Amino acid sequence: MSPPLEKVYQLFPDRAFLVTQLAHRSEGFFALCEEYDLAVSALQQLEARGAHAAADLLHMAEYRALIEELKLDLLRELQASEEASKH
């Protein structure tokens, strides 16, 4: 299992096979997976160190917003691939 994909597998456990296929087929999808992995890891690090400074709280909010955007982008890519495979 590719490390950048692990968090995406956790996010979409019922679509793990499709995630793997898309990641191998599409550089753009793989890049989204990498971005998601990095954003989640960065947020986890900030949370783990108990960051309470205003700048840290702002960064945490920014990471949370980015993570939500990436989740939607990943979901759209997965749904588009599922739709394309039906035709």
Helicity level: over 70%
Total separate domains:
1
User: Which structural class do you get from the secondary structure elements?
Assistant: mainly alpha
How is the main sheet built? none
The share of residues in extended strands comes to under 5%
Rg (C-alpha, Å): 15 Å
The counted number of beta strands is 0
**How do the helices and strands follow one another from N- to C-terminus?**
HHHH
Give the count of helical stretches.
4
Q: Specify the overall morphology.
A: elongated
Q: Which regions are unreliable across 5 or more consecutive residues at pLDDT < 50? A: none
Question: How widely separated are the two ends?
Answer: 29 Å
Keywords:
85% helix; 87 residues; mainly alpha
Task: Provide a descriptive summary of the structure in words.
This protein is mainly α. It has one domain (3-86). It contains four helices and no strands. The protein has helices at 3-11, 16-25, 27-48, 54-86. Helix 1 (3-11) packs across helix 2. The radius of gyration is 15 Å and the shape is elongated.
